[in-house]
Amino acid sequence: MDKLTRFKEIIAQYCQVAAEDMREDMRFREDLGFSSLDFMSFLGEIEDDFDVELDEERLIDINTIGEAMNMINGLQGA
Amino acid sequence: MRNEYPLTAAQNMHHQWIREYGTQQVSGVSIVASLKAELDFGLLKKCIQLEIKRYGCMRVRFTKPDENGKVRQYIIKHDPRDIPLKDLTGLSLDKADDEMQQWAYQTFDGDNRPMCEVTMVKLPEGYNGFFVHMDHRLIDSCSLVVMINDIMKLYTHYRFGSEYPEDLADYEQVLRNDLAKASNEKRFLKDKKFWDDQLDRLGEPLYSDIQGPSMLEKARKDHKNKKLRSADIERKDLFVAVKDYVLEPDAAKGLIDFCLNHQLSMTNLLLLGLRTYLSKVNNGQEDITIENFISRRSTHDEWTSGGSRTIMFPCRTVISGDTEFLAAAYEIQNVQNRIYMHGNYDPALIRDEIKRRYKTPDDTTYVSCYLTYQPMPVKTDNPFIKDIPMHSKWFANGAATKKMYLTVSHTENGGMNFSYHYQTASLTEKDMELLYYYMMRILFKGISEPDLKIGDIIKQV
Asked: Which residues contact B432 (CB under 8 A, 6 or more apart)?
């Protein structure tokens, strides 16, 4: 399974949108209905699943699926 | 052979309270859910029995405590119990509530036994439904609401032919996942670092009491330590009283709109109101800690697996009087968001670390106020019954482990309910009245003038 597919599958556990219907410009809060708790719990799971360490000061800049994916790619040096 | 599992951190929180206070009563949770409608009690019994099959947490039992007081949990496969029916129609609704309140005081003593009871009830004024009494190690308020809604869906399926409810997540599988997450060493070290960093940065917390500095001053005298920063916990007289205040829909809308317009969560606004009150009555104290309960339910499985996932973490903020109301709200939100990210950590370890660093005396605490915000109302979206008047009520277990525990929830008509559970050993209804009055004054002053400084709000209210 590629990274993006895995990423979307994790997101799908937190919302009502199916992984295959997700677009990179979708916003976590407004489009996917994440609460603050959902979003931060999700990021914690992403850290564990992708074995990265997110910069907690920069998390406020993440609004969309694409931005989150870019951050992970950057941390993994992809 | 049965599978046995250790308790999760959230379950262990309740288990430790049972041990510390020497009674299971502190872990009781009870609710009645009823509709103003004739019910087929034979069918309702079938639905409740079916729910016990569907909702694994209702079949959890505990082993006998080992020499260290620890228990393990297991899930029995079948629990073919009878569901009794009690007729309270001869009473007024208030008296019926009083009767059910007595049921809520009952304890589940012993081990290897059912830790939940469901009773069907015929209530006055045409209300009919069921009363649920459970041990908090099995269920929290979110999962109780899920359970009530699921029973209603089963009932309307069999009674009116509505769609059969979707399967609920498997309690045992979710439990295994939770325990696996808790044993992830890398995650554990990240979480520990977050909490340790807070202590490195801010040092020992400082107690703030609802009634002002006198409690801390008394503790300092009693412990013969002028620098003591924690105050004594009431261990003997645990009797709790409850005082509810309802905020009318128009006023509640003001708070909700403020949160929406400023991308704030209601929890953080409430924390700000509560901490500002504590600051006001403690001579402007800036370092305030409130224990805030987090539901830890985000994924579909976490929402529908039942169980006790709610856990409390200290929300500690140091906010000066020169900080503007909105900026203070964002400061709390920032702290809370980071706590959410580290919410898998066992909060008992935070207290252990504080005790290790600062030699906190036994039976003392830094916290007098505890907050739970429940965004989910006890209201069904079931189209077959959504227009039928409902009588639902949470019952206190009668024994408080906390000096003051505020539960804020939304009412069916768009208002908000502020339910103050307080230890009567040191607090009175008048204290709760003052707390609610000033909390509201602070919040409404703040949302009407978000640029106003906290210190000025304290002076003006």
From this structure: B243, B404, B420, B422
Of B184, B298, B301, the CB nearest to A38: B298
Residue B61 has pLDDT above 60, yes or no: yes
* 8 Å CB contact of A56 and B341: yes
CATH superfamily of B184-385+395-460: Nonribosomal peptide synthetase, condensation domain (3.30.559.30)
The full set of domain ranges for chain A reads 3-76
Q: Do B265 and A36 touch (CB under 8 A)?
A: yes
What pLDDT does residue B208 have? 98
A56 touches chain B (CB under 8 A): yes
What tokens appear for B60 in the block? 């959890």
| Whole-angstrom distance, CA of residue B200 vs CA of residue A69 | 33
Q: What is the pLDDT of residues B180-214, one digit of tens each?
A: 999 999 999 999 999 999 999 999 999 999 999 99
Instruction: Kindly state the tokens that stand for B461.
Output: 């209210």
DSSP class per residue in B330-359: HHHHHHHHHHHHTTTS-HHHHHHHHHHHH-
Please state, rounded to an integer, the average pLDDT across all residues of chain B.
94
Would the pLDDT of B269 be above 60? yes
Same CATH topology for B5-175 and B184-385+395-460: the answer is yes
* 3 state DSSP class of B237: coil
pLDDT for residue B376: 63
Nearest-by-Cβ selection for A13 from B299, B336, B337 = B299
Looking at chain A, which residue has its C-alpha nearest residue B303?
A14
For residues B185 and B159, give the distance between their C-alpha atoms in angstroms, rounded to a whole number.
50
Confidence of residue B377 (pLDDT cuts 50, 70, 90): low
Fold of the domain built from segment(s) B5-175: Chloramphenicol Acetyltransferase (3.30.559)
Work out how many CB contacts closer than 8 A connect A with B. 50
Rounded to two decimals, the ipTM of the complex is: 0.86
Span A3-76: which CATH code?
1.10.1200.10
> What is the nearest CA distance from B313 to chain A, expressed in angstroms?
13
Domain regions of chain B by residue span = 5-175, 184-385+395-460
Find which of B192, B299, B304 to mutate to test the A interface (most A CBs within 10 Å of its CB): B299
pTM reported for the whole predicted model: 0.89
**Closest CA–CA distance from residue A29 to any residue of chain B (Å):** 10
B419 touches chain A (CB under 8 A): no
Contact partners, residue B14, CB within 8 Å, separation at least 6: B26, B27, B135, B136, B137, B308
User: A78 CA to chain B: closest CA distance, Å?
Assistant: 22
Instruction: Say if the Cβ atoms of B343 and A47 lie within 8 Å.
Output: no
